[in-house]
Batch of 4 targets.
Target 1
Amino acid sequence: MTQMHPLENLYQEELYNIRGKILVLIRKPWADITEDEKTLLTKILSSVKLSLASVQIINRAEFDAVDFSAFRPDCIIAFGSTLKTSNKMYEKIVQNDVAIVVADELDQLDDVRKRNLWLTLKQLFHS
């Protein structure tokens, strides 16, 4: 019988499923975001088991995935920020191995847009 190292089975991958870095881009400065918009953002993030504390929020009007290569994100969710290389919204876009979802600004999300965003985020985080 072969002898096993005592720590060989200590870290089971299922227990330590750590997500990669998530960037949230907003068009206007955080100081200009209303309490209602912060509440909506919190609800959107919690729908995919994230929180404000678990993401990095960056103010940017226009972006490209390469702009954030130093952050090494797995995913970018943009609210009102424009992706330089695509005009697609509410769809999963992959650029430089980074999944990107572009949505309208928080104050412009009506029920239809919220549903489209939810469907895209569901596909992105639950697949």
Note: The CA atoms of residues 45 and 51 lie 6 Å apart.
Target 2
Amino acid sequence: MATGTPIQNFNDFMQTTGPSYLTSANEVVNEAAKHNYVFNGLLAGKGAERSIQGGNEIRDVIMFETGSTYDHYKPNETFTWSMPQVTDTVTAHWRFIIDHMSWTDAEIELNMSEGNTRDSIKGQYKKLKQIKEQRLWTSMLNGMETDLFRSTAGNRSEMEVHSGKLPNSIFSFITERVTDGSSAGITVDGDPRGTLPNTWADGSVQGVDPTADVIGTSSTKWTNQISCYASPSNAGPDLTTAELLNADPVDIAAAHSSIEGGATTFKVHGLFGAFDEMFYKVQYRAPNKYSEYFEDSAFGQQMILCSREGINNYKKALRISNDRLLGAGTEDAGYQAPSYSGIPLTYVSQLDVADVCPARSGEALDANLSDRNGATVSSTAGAAETAAGNNGPLDFGPRYYFINGEYLNMFFHSRRYMVKHDVLRHPNQPFTYVQPVDCWMNLFCRSRSRLGVIKPLVNA
């Protein structure tokens, strides 16, 4: 080690040595994928070309319609050629995140014993550095995970607009609002689709209006899938009998224009029927065997996310659907890894308190329903959902989010991924040192129609 005080040497050591995850774009992607299940689904199986970009924006070209040029002809007929404009560009803006490591004179000096050899001092520095970096890395990943489930309520200008500072959340791309901004609900092939995120009045998601025509056609496919399960108590699905869990769908006309878009008709299923419908809407692929989910990274990108109440309701439904548990030695009512078509349901603690219900104006909050897991109403909208309209409180109860990481990407900027900066001395605390680390990133969606939500709806 160079001569000087321990704090001077440690500052130099921190500034001139870097952890492995700072060395390349591939490393940061791989490291992130190891630590968090949701990040794993968004990053697993993707090389740097799918998660690392340069430039001043994140862009992708999407084809919403084919613009058919197929025709029939007779011999010697004169042809009329056309060149349909079938693509549109979706754009997200870089968001900038920062975290830091810090230490004090006393922390470093008191860890250095007099008479230590060069190697022992270096070993102590490495130990302290590892502790600092482990805390930093955990903090940064936890922060990005929180951002994935941040409410869109009141955050349109921060998430969608170029000058904002918050990255997109999953709720930017999966919403329960089907209205086009007036009294009509958006449908595609007869199915109500999610349009604008909760409380967003502006008509764009990544620069494309999901409620209006795009590229000169009548396409509204820049929308997410929605399926509904019967929820008579609004605390979850009807779990009384196996017949109700597998009940045939019933058409329900929801009449709350600020959410459902006037008298939009929804098909309300039993819980398992809603899963059946959503599975094919988002075009999931089922693994041939359960272990293939872990062997093939494509299956690792398919996730079903839910709150604690949501996963417990699903486990209860599985128990009700079985006449009895398996034979001697295999009885286990826990269902520790419940799945649908081989895709495990994943508990996400943020969904226990996430603002996912669009609020309806003019309705007072019912305290008995305000704290339903996975169905917290938006406090920023100035109103909350309660018993109102002809079907009662429609939206209380847990949701199930179908996420496909093939179409929902976490992007990092090629020149600013986890960049470690110079050690700074705190101006107001002369014995404290800070080392900032920043990153440029955002969550980017390539296809909203491959994402979906299963929500409760009263089957009156």
Note: The chain has a mean pLDDT of 75.
Target 3
Amino acid sequence: MDSVLIISNMDKATGFFADTLKPVSVEHIVTVSNCGEARRLLAQRDFDLVIINAPLSDETGENLSRHISSNLMSQVILVVKSEFFDAITANCQGDGVLTVSKPINKAVFWSALMLAKSAGNRIKRMRSENEALKQKIEDIRIVDRAKMILVSCMEMTENEAHRYIEKQAMNQRTSKRMVAESIINAE
């Protein structure tokens, strides 16, 4: 976990969260005191984890936590009063928000923190795999476009065009995509 945003209007709670994060080796901890500041900051940059100590001065924090969890890549821990815990958990769990009841039990908060870290790592890995798959799809699309150019302009069959692109890639020691791009650019 590289960066954490703590949203709390209570200095004691902010200190508790910051102290609890020390063993996790968080590089950047940013603190704000209300949802308005948090929304402005989140529009500018991403955080691996957002901890919201509800309620805040300008809103409860529930809507913000759901928005962050649904629309951003950040993991969210929402700390709420015990009398609202069940209702807020029911509302937020579908969006992936982890809720913790006040008064905060350090062991429970630590468990929520480790769950958030684990889920964040999994999401990062899936995002990386997704980007790799998008790249492969784009490569295939470009190679197919080059094959169609070879079929139409050079009167090759599709298999001949495919073999031609592969052979050029091997001979030039480049990727099939680079060969395909040069064919497309030469057209």
Note: The helical segments are 11-21, 35-44, 62-71, 85-92, 106-153, 158-172, 176-186.
Target 4
Amino acid sequence: MQGYTREELEKIIVSEAAGDRILPEKGEHCPACDAIIPRFLDLPPEQEAMVRAIDREGRRVEAIRKLRELTGCPLAWAKIWVSHPTGPKPEHTRGNTSPCPYCGKPLRTDQAKQCFHCGADWHHGAV
């Protein structure tokens, strides 16, 4: 699986400072949130374990800060990585097969009034 070196991440940070919003393209795809979980090639296993331990202690913001310090990754990337401690999550359908009336992807519940995938919202009106 491909990942990012510190050098690549530094270039991405410069691009984001210039106004470009860059999302990860290398890593594992999470079907639940449709994000790519970035992989950091220069993050040694013991440092990864340390960041994961901080997060398990309920100190998510500190874990995100520490990951950024260790890798040089953008804030959004650190949030994605920390929020997937065991890797990709399965697509979340809770047994529902009802499709979104806008994009056709499965809704989370039978009572859903908003689509997790496309963001369509029909709380205050008919579809």
Note: The first helix runs from residue 6 to 17.
